# Entry
Amino acid sequence: MNSDAPVLNTPRLELRPLELADAEAVQALFPRWDIVRFLARNVPWPYPADGALTYIRDHVLPAMRDGTEWHWSIRLKSAPDRLIGAITLMDKPENNRGFWLDPAFQGQGLMSEACASVTEFWFETLERPVLHAPKAVANERSRRISVRAGMRMIATSERDYVSGRLPEELWEITRDEWRARSGG
# Structure
């Protein structure tokens, strides 16, 4: 476990740094069209049988060690042994946060809760001045999370997603805006 990515707790969730032991649970949940269709084209599709293991071992763990990315598994506090999704912060231009959640747990405000926690980490622990989150225009659930969090859409473009080339929006919130909303 990387000490730079601490366990984060919310009222209903425990976010644990993603580790190699999570590969089996990720592999069981992740390769579903309703999860991957709005993810960047670099996600292989069809998803290979060793996709989660390879991704965690060859990308996640080195990026966490390098301090350029922070990855967490999402778990309910009421069932902490069950991984239900993942959320990531990335030190990349105009692409700082990404996430996915088992569809069985969507629509309950869980991802908004996870986003609030990692956004606090981004601004208060990492002391970043702005958070950018690109997303497909068609990804209504993700867009609603950004709206509820006080983010604003600042640019439009097109991008290649697993489901093809789609219109994209870039959403942003500054540390000062976030602090004003959160009382921080």
Remarks:
- The chain has a mean pLDDT of 96.
- Residues 51-66 form the longest helix (16 residues).
- The first strand starts at residue 8 and ends at 9.
- The two ends are 28 Å apart (CA to CA).
